[in-house]
Amino acid sequence: MDKPSTARRPGRPRADSTAVPGERDVLLRGLEAFATLGYDRASARELARRLGVGPTFINDRYGSKAAYWRAVVDAALGAQLAGMAQPVPGSADEDVVRQFVMEFYRVSIDEPYLAMLIADESTRDTERLDYLYERYIEPQLALVVPSIERLMAAGRMARVPMDIVFFAIIAPVSGLVQEPLARRLGSPEHMQQADRLARAEALAGLVAEGLLATRG
């Protein structure tokens, strides 16, 4: 009779190893690592070190570093988009734009590492950027594009290329998540969540009203 297999299941620690963090913690620590190190510098060994697990943990649990990155992104962006209020059918186009900008900034302050990761990945033409764009970015932009097009056609918004519009919305989020630079520019060093939300609202108002301003 064959002996029972003693092989460890994927992601299972050795008997003499320390306890493996829970799945949520594994994904949160991975988000921080990918955001602060960048994908290439976040080696499987470095990721395992930060997680406090054995060097083969990432491959055992997820199959590859790329699959782990996707799991990290899916968890973070899935939670972020779930908390992002969607446009109310029948809303005025100006209100759709204002709400989109406000919601984008509001959810960004809840998970700054995600904004950092997306900003970093946006500088490289990779399959990871394709994954982010096709799965998350494009579907969200599609919610507000019709309103922007109608506002431009009606002369209530400047006619500029759509990519310029979205960079005008996306780029300022750095003021909410790049805290070391923000502090040097005068941002308070220790802020409560209410303070962060107030800053997000102020930035959203500035950006949205700038986009919607018309010239006589």
Structure description:
With 216 residues, the chain is mainly alpha-helical. The protein has two domains: 23-75, Homeodomain-like (Arc Repressor Mutant, subunit A); 86-212, Tetracycline Repressor, domain 2, CATH 1.10.357. The protein is built from twelve helices and no strands. The N and C termini lie far apart (88 Å). Mean pLDDT is 87; it is low at 1-16.
Please give a handful of descriptors for the protein shown:
216 residues, mainly alpha, Arc Repressor Mutant, subunit A
Order of helices and strands: HHHHHHHHHHHH
Rg of Cα set = 21 Å
What is the fold named in CATH at topology level of the largest domain? Tetracycline Repressor, domain 2
- Number of E strands: 0
**Secondary-structure content class:** mainly alpha
In short:
The protein has helices at 23-37, 44-51, 57-62, 65-82, 93-110, 112-121, 127-142, 145-153, 162-170, 174-177, 179-184, 193-212.
Produce the secondary structure layout.
Layout: H1 23-37, H2 44-51, H3 57-62, H4 65-82, H5 93-110, H6 112-121, H7 127-142, H8 145-153, H9 162-170, H10 174-177, H11 179-184, H12 193-212
